[in-house]
Amino acid sequence: MTALELRVPVAAxxxxxxxxxxxxxxxxxxxxxxxxxxxxxxGTGTGTGLAAFTGIGPIGFTDTMRVxxxxxxxxxxxxxxxxxxxxxxxxxxxxxxxxxxxxxxEDIALPxxxxxxxxxxxxxSLRKFAAFAKEYRR
Length: 138
Fold this sequence. Notes:
By secondary structure, the protein is α+β, with helices and mostly antiparallel strands. The chain contains two helices and seven strands; from the N terminus they run βαββββββα. It has a single domain, classed as 2-Layer Sandwich (Alpha-D-Glucose-1,6-Bisphosphate, Chain A, domain 4), CATH 3.30.530. It starts with a strand and ends with a helix. InterPro entries: Polyketide_cyclase/dehydratase, START-like_dom_sf. This is Polyketide cyclase.
């Protein structure tokens, strides 16, 4: 298993940061080479199903997930249920007045060769997310 916890400051209040994080179809605007779609539910609660394709063109993999905790505007947890990525993930939004901190954690099984690229990709994506959330509008 690969355990990961990354933090990024966000120059936006918790409510806006939460809205930006849970705008599943727009995650591709900040998540490296990834498109996300809701596969079951309305995208706003426990039991929601998600599918995230990561790759370029037809080459890549789909990470299927089910939301296991939904506590707006501070916490969302998922169970990764796919063939390539299995385990748990969570994001927490820590309110700090007009700003906040995003804490992204994963405890997942990954092929050993994929771990360094995964870590770099998540770090890059979280930096891009901080800028996305600052300007986010539905």
